[in-house]
Amino acid sequence: MQRLLLLIIVAVASQAAAQERPTAAEVLANSAPSDWRTPAPENMLYLQLPHGRVVFELAPQFAPLHSANIRRLVGAGYFDGLSILRSQDNYVVQWGDPDADGDRARPIGNAEPVLDGEFHTDAGGASFTRIDSEDAYAPEVGFVDGFPAARDGPDGRLWLTHCYGMLGVGRGNAADSGNGAQLYVVTGHAPRHLDRNVTLVGRVIDGIEHLATLPRGSGPLGFFESSNEFVPVASMRLGSALPEDERLQVELLRTDTATFSRLVEARRHRAEEWFVDPVDAIEVCNVPLPARPR
Amino acid sequence: MQRLLLLIIVAVASQAAAQERPTAAEVLANSAPSDWRTPAPENMLYLQLPHGRVVFELAPQFAPLHSANIRRLVGAGYFDGLSILRSQDNYVVQWGDPDADGDRARPIGNAEPVLDGEFHTDAGGASFTRIDSEDAYAPEVGFVDGFPAARDGPDGRLWLTHCYGMLGVGRGNAADSGNGAQLYVVTGHAPRHLDRNVTLVGRVIDGIEHLATLPRGSGPLGFFESSNEFVPVASMRLGSALPEDERLQVELLRTDTATFSRLVEARRHRAEEWFVDPVDAIEVCNVPLPARPR
Question: Which H or E element spans position B73?
Fold first, then answer.
């Protein structure tokens, strides 16, 4: 019994019960090679911190202007030597230029200084894998190209959702005041009230713990109050600018596949032996988005 | 504009917009003394770690057997010198006896070795402050005595929900295999699929960052793989066993008040100037549970 106590909360990797429903682990074990995709190097971002590397996939189909501007900034080395400025518990980590509002602001080069917000796009035409879920914030939730998303309906608006690990663009009170020079990552319970109010541009696919475990800032909204709290950004690079052997060799499960739908169902109906009252429900931000070494 | 970029995501403390709806900050500023309560010392738990202190409020009305057993364990100093054993990203931190399954297991004294799971109770009779929210996991969600909760309906089952910061009791595969000697705290997006499958006994009211920022364990399910990863538990104490001047002097907002209902509405309808597409929705785990110095 005591050994079992160490197991406690059984997650994806747990053992299968002798039931007809497969577990998530079994679904993945039975996936086909074609269920997986390799993200394009030009959509990969690498944030190098002193203590580790965080890897992102951009979603330019949702935020073409911001993705292009971020590529310009990253390509020019804009972020290199800047800092993580904010770590708010159960909310976000944010980085950029600590002198952005002063005379010593770093020039943004050929990047656009302000962009219209890309808060939503059109649902028509997008391949939306809807999941059956009552959602507090949206009529329909699901996945598009590997990203969690929501929409009004098939002909309405479509937007990325603020799940754990999503990458967004800081902005001021004006909807068009963001440009990609301040970025944030969701490191807590999904702040879905931000959906459609700020531009999401991608998500973390590796290394989020290097952001999520940062000490929290002592100032309002988790901002670091003095520069000795700042965590330096060593560099930020596009995957296409990295040598092949420095790129993350990873495959991501396609979300428009039968395997993914089976994974969602395996997480909705928990077949693992540990569950005594299987849930038969799932929320969009609790759906895993599996990655594996390529 | 650049100064605004530093503001970015405006939370509770944000400025009020010139609108008729109050912000959350305004609701709290207008609260009455009677809207606040002082948690009972016998329901307070203090977890002392090398780097800080985490304070919990127990919810014995939901889990009387487990609360009583935890009081026995804590009262006997059971946790002193044990370890944090697990830190799983976007999930839980867990502590207890690393030798629990071996010959060197620490004796649990007069505590019960196993308890029936207290996974839900009866909704009838409980003061349930329901909130209007579509929920993926439950027919009705709301708050009871300051804790997030869900129920089937007024005469059905009632249970605590796995929101960020909730305190739970680890168990093995058998529903009655938990006893309170292994405890966990939710440190990521609410794993609501655990609701009604494991006993929740309370929540963190102060210092959760000391758990949430712990390095993640490298083993399966975030367990630490070697003892040099363990984080020592210096002590665990009941508030009633601490001298008055060592207790957290705190008041918590009552959740059965008009002020709390106004707070929920202020978070549902975001009046802060930053929001361009106010959300008009809220999820139970995104409702703040304010604390203030007493």
Answer: helix B64-75
